[in-house]
């Protein structure tokens, strides 16, 4: 079952159970996926759908950070709930140890040795871990191993 089908099933379930917050988030994600499909002029692949889902999750996390910084707990609470709902649709996240292992392998594969090679390493790693970890973790580990 692809992501759009899963969202449709979950949307119906959320309607039946009168879960307003979950229903709202699912509708938002479906809308974002459909907009992206229209923009690309074709049905989305699983990888493209994951990219859209990642973008939506990142927006929520950025908003959460700003709300917490501004001491707006009322808004932060809603965004936290949205993040939890969105995380349910993400693939299983890699542990930091596994990401470190991938970073070390990739550094050896591309022959990187200095901080000047960070871009080359990041470009090779990100497709491998797409949707499975946060890019900031990858970036931090790459910088750590290349320094």
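^ Assign residues to that structure.
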């Amino acid at each position: 079952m692809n992501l759009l089908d899963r969202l449709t099933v979950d949307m119906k379930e959320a309607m039946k159970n009168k879960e307003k917050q979950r229903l709202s988030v699912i509708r938002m994600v479906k809308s974002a996926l459909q907009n992206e499909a229209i923009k690309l002029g074709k049905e989305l692949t699983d990888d493209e759908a994951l990219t859209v889902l990642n973008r939506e999750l990142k927006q929520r996390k950025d908003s959460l950070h700003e709300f917490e910084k501004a001491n707006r707990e009322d808004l932060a609470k809603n965004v936290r709930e949205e993040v939890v709902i969105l995380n349910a649709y993400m693939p299983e996240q890699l542990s930091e140890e596994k990401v470190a292992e991938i970073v070390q392998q990739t550094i050896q594969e591309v022959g990187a040795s200095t901080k000047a090679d960070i871009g080359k390493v990041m470009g090779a790693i990100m497709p491998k871990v797409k949707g499975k970890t946060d890019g900031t973790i990858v970036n931090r580990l790459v910088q750590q191993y290349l320094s």
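DSSP finds seven helices and no strands in the chain.
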